What does this fold into?
Amino acid sequence: MKRLVLFLFSLIAMVAGPCFASRTLTDEMGRRVVVPDHPHRVICLMPTVTDTAFALGAGDDVVAISDYTKYPAAALKKPSVGDLINPSIETILSLHPDLVIGSQPKGPMQVTEQLERAGIPIFLVSPHGIAGIFHSIETIGTALNRTPQAEALIESLQQRVDAVRARTKSLPAPRVFMPIWYDPITTIGRNAFITEMIAAAGGRSVTDDLSTEWPQISMEVVLERAPDALLLVRGGKTTLQVLQDRPGWSSMTAIKLHRAYYVDDRINFASPVAIDALEDLAKQFHP
It folds into this structure.
């Protein structure tokens, strides 16, 4: 009888082991997170995380996304758990996820703490710059147990970035000004992701010396820097027509001559689709 009991316990362990096996990982916030060996019910709390998960071939394991997700198109078939700052905890719990992946919160860690109390592992990433995209692909790949896919994806994306840089490095760099908003005038500084993308595409932001990420500056400063052209998001609300009708903007040479480059909105996503935007931008700068 004793042998039979031991045999049954051994059998249960063999069957249940793969289901309950787990790994302890360190996320990009330095938190130790226990995640399943093979997550199959994943919720992505950021559009960039969703894009990365799908690029790694884990789209079938994603059970929900967040608002503002645009890429890839296949992800839009998934239900949303709500906005980026305050997603619906009730909806998340109802989906019984075995892993939630989000990004470093701008404010309090309230959502993270609520999910932790509910026993749901939440793994956080914090991509900054092109190198940050690659690092997050690596860490998300580890969390999803898709390390070979992550390595292959990083290699492919790195080759594309290197090809753009090689093609544009000896060409004259257009000096551009990117107005994120016009009242107050808000632009990109040294540490902004888009500033790095402009440089990688063979251009230069005239505000790349400003220390803050999203500086607010005066029209006088913009005119002093005399950009060759504006850089606008294709389909965005800030257009040449809008700007030239605003006080002071019509005196800018770039606006007088209708000089503007248009970048794809994927440049706003610190994920694999950003490399598509980089290639598009390089073609804008250097047809």
Summary: The two ends are 80 Å apart (CA to CA).
